[in-house]
Design brief:
Elements lengths: L6 E5 L3 H12 L3 E5 L3 H8 L8 H9 L3 E4 L10 E4 L14 H14 L7 E5 L7 H11 L9 E5 L9 H6 L4 E5 L2 H18 L5 E4 L1 H29 L7 H8 L21 H16 L3 H23 L7 E5 L14 H11 L3 E5 L3 H10 L4 E2 L11 E4 L13 H4 L1 E4 L10 E2 L7
Parallel strand pairs: 1-2, 1-4, 2-3, 4-5, 5-6, 7-8, 9-10, 9-12, 10-11, 12-13, 13-14
Antiparallel strand pairs: 6-7
Helix pairs in contact: 8-10, 8-11, 10-11, 11-12
């Protein structure tokens, strides 16, 4: 590391980019963040971003350690720039790299006007194997960046949980760096070693090829998707076996240290901003490279579960038209306002398509408002007492609040628990034989 404190740039200030920007700035680095969303930038400047602790964020903003802007000009003096833009996946599995390319083009426009000795671009966005090297070549050939002589290029995948992003930045299970050459890798490894020396934590750091780094991320996420689907398939099997509770079964299975309990307990299908898009993209990639459609089937089985739930409701209620159904939990996971690719949203859409009357609730009120903007015709459930007026209740997220459904609701409504957290004896646990 040089004596001059390196300036860290971050492009894309969603929960991943902001977590890294905040983490580096908290430990003495000068950080410059860019996001094209002006409202997001204003919220960060005011310390009003959920999940990042207003006091810590305001402190680094006020002391100048972290500066954020909508202009790439703030990256003029950046020594390292992390690109953390979205890489959405289309329904056919094709990956959209337009946001990454746009970020590279804007950054190159600033750097071409600047004199510097050596800098590194680090792609944190999830991309398929081969993409980082291809983007580096594009930046060299089309954008005029002096790669690799004066600009290094590397892939550094993130493994953050949305609700614990900063914690995962500060104490990661591993750091993976895949530079296009040795100099790129060494530069970024040294940066992380200095960062974690200041944090007081020493994670394992792996130096690999860009292709290996890219594959590590997909192999990790798709395996979590597979575990989720497998746990739910065992749950469907338990529905057909007398005296069988899938939560008990899989809780015991998860005690095996080779398996673990993460993502394996039965529940709703996987959803959210990562697993859906990554499984679709990797499924197409796997099929193109090997001719095997195994990963594609993971996603197909995940989608099948919503159909099974709707079929069960249709059977129990003797039809869904005009039936009042409450869905408790619309975010893709507890305590999150994010409803993107939420399985509960897909469930609501299916119920609405069957002409059911759908009520929604979530402990996170922002999630309810976002869901209402997506789902035409749904109604917000204001209190648990209102459940006495519906025909069925589906608990999709394991909030403690949903253990407290008024007992007399069970006298008039079918209450189906998808989570295993509702202990009231009259609740119907979806993944047990007593729901048949």
């Amino acid at each position: 590391m040089s004596r001059r404190e390196r300036v860290i740039g971050v492009v894309g200030l969603g929960y991943v980019g902001l977590a890294y920007a905040l983490g580096f700035s908290m430990y003495g680095f000068r950080v410059r963040g860019v996001d094209i969303d002006g409202e997001r930038v204003k919220s960060i400047e005011n310390g009003l971003v959920n999940g990042f602790g207003g006091e810590a964020l305001l402190k680094v903003i006020q002391n100048g350690s972290l500066k954020v802007s909508t202009s790439y000009e703030v990256l003029e003096d950046a020594d390292v720039v992390f690109i953390v833009t979205n890489t959405p996946t289309k329904p056919d599995g094709l990956q959209d790299l337009s946001q990454v390319v746009s970020a590279l083009e804007s950054l190159a426009g600033v750097w071409r006007k600047t004199h510097f000795n050596y800098r590194v671009i680090v792609l944190k966005s999830t991309v398929l194997p081969g993409t980082t090297r291809a983007l580096a070549e594009y930046a060299r050939r089309e954008l005029g960046l002096p790669i690799p002589d004066r600009v290094g290029f590397a892939h550094n995948p993130e493994f953050l949980r949305a609700d614990r992003a900063l914690e995962d930045v500060l104490r990661p299970s591993r750091v993976v760096v895949g530079g296009i050459d040795e100099r790129s890798s060494i530069y970024i490894v040294d940066l992380f070693r200095e960062f974690y020396r200041r944090v007081g934590y020493e994670p394992p750091i792996y130096t690999v090829s860009p292709e290996e780094a890219e594959l590590v991320k997909y192999a990790s996420n798709v395996f979590l998707a597979l575990k989720t689907v497998y746990g739910n398939l065992i749950g469907l099997l338990c529905r057909q076996i007398d005296n069988c509770d899938a939560w008990r079964v899989m809780s015991i299975v998860g005690l095996d240290p080779r398996i673990g309990r993460s993502h394996i307990l039965p529940g709703m299908p996987y959803g959210g901003p990562c697993l859906v898009k990554d499984t679709l993209a990797f499924g197409r990639f796997m099929l193109e490279k090997t001719g095997l459609d195994f990963v594609k089937h993971i996603h197909d089985y995940n989608e099948l579960l919503i159909e099974k739930v709707v079929e069960h409701l249709d059977s129990e209620l003797n039809g869904l038209q005009g039936r009042k159904i409450a869905v408790l939990g619309v975010s893709y996971k507890p305590n999150s306002p994010d409803v993107k690719d939420s399985p509960a949203i897909k469930l609501c859409e299916k119920l609405l398509s069957k002409n059911a009357i759908v009520y929604i609730h979530d402990v996170n009120r922002e999630a309810v408002e976002k869901a209402k903007a997506i789902l035409s015709g749904v109604k917000a459930l204001e209190t648990m007492e209102k459940l006495k007026e519906v025909d069925a209740v589906i608990v999709t997220l394991g909030y403690n609040e949903y253990r407290l459904i008024p007992p007399d609701v069970y006298d008039n409504a079918l209450v189906i628990d998808m989570t295993g957290v509702v202990t009231y004896e009259k609740a119907r646990r979806f993944y047990t034989s007593n729901t048949r």
